[in-house]
């Protein structure tokens, strides 16, 4: 399949990326590539819509509809068990508060970090839409993520304390979720989901139109990936 896709791409891009006199490769026509990509994505949207319509029709089958209804009821029962367990509700609330407090503290530390301030200033000043500017912004965002990660895992006493409190709250919430009634409801929910998913997969494989639509979308996605790669390479700054 990959070879077929590459042959298709080469055939479609002869004019855009042909070979110049003297054996030197001509620069790809980025606009032509982008036009081709847009057309492919439109085709993908159409195939996806067809696939979804076929799936929706398939789910109307009586046996599958019954399994779907059973799955919904099991999901609702599981949510009800969790909502009715005071210890679980309290542990969830404490977990959420601890996570929010940790995130808020890290954000404050990041805002006060000199390196982060410098990188953020570069991001704020970058308004160009050239490939070089986009690349610079991506690198700056990656640098900010590195600084944030260093703060989260660093030796700052306040951050370490908030991290330990968050981890403890997460563990307490997980333990509360192991209560017998909640565990039983979760097991029933998982079994109902699996029964529905298994039957849905069986029906999809047995439906030739749906199987063909799924396969066609996968092929188009591979073509889109190849074109996006070519465009990225064509727009990359020349060294």
Write a compact overview of the structure shown.
The protein is mainly α. The chain has helices spanning 2-12, 30-58, 62-83, 86-112, 114-125, 131-153, 157-176, 180-206, 208-235.
Structural account:
The protein is mainly alpha-helical. It has one domain (2-235). Helices cover 83% and strands 0% of the residues. It has nine helices and no strands. α2 (30-58) packs antiparallel against α9 and α4 (86-112) packs antiparallel against α7. The longest helix has 29 residues, at 30-58.
Summary tags:
single chain; 239 residues; mainly alpha; 9 helices; disordered N terminus
Number of helices: 9
- SSE arrangement, N to C: HHHHHHHHH
- Report the portion of residues in β strands: under 5%
Largest sheet, in brief, is: none
What is the first-to-last residue Cα distance? 33 Å
Overall average residue pLDDT: 89
Helix content: over 70%
Can you tell me the number of structural domains? 1
What would you report as the Rg, rounded to the nearest angstrom?
27 Å
Low-confidence stretches: 1-6, 13-24
Shape field? flat
What would you call the quaternary organization? single chain
| Class from helix and strand fractions | mainly alpha
